[in-house]
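User: Hey, my collaborator sent me this sequence without any context and asked if I could get a structure. I don't really work with proteins. Can you help?
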Amino acid sequence: MSVQVLYTAQATAVGGREGQIESSDGVLKAKLAIPKEMGGPGGAATNPEQLFAAGYAACFEGAVRFVARQQGVKIESASVTARVGVGPRSAGGFGITADLAVTLTGMDRAVAQQLIETAHSDICPYSHATRGNVDVNVHLV
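Assistant: No problem. I've predicted the 3D structure and written it out in structure-token form, which is a compact way to encode the shape of the chain:
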């Protein structure tokens, strides 16, 4: 499969989960900390799972809106809440899970369900990247 790249994001991490990240344009700059639930200090810093959740939520909502436009469906309002879990895998190492809770108002529930299914199966690059590697649950709220 080939991809016609339209945009390339670049970010650098220094110090791993206890360091910092910065995008090449300086727009994104954040301190990282291991969450308390994973034995770290937590606090006023982010972590890779929060960053992944934010990216997936934004990208998936964009994919839903794209599908709606293609199909001529008007969305009154939309939001996606992504929950990304991390922990040990039974096969060794660590893995992640993702749960996408989608809210779509102003339309029939069956139409909304079809929009999110198409966005997940055909459009969202995060869904393509995780397919077969990450347990992803997508559902209407």
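In plain terms: The beta strands are 11-14, 20-23, 29-31, 77-88, 94-105, 135-140. You can pass these tokens on to your collaborator as they are.
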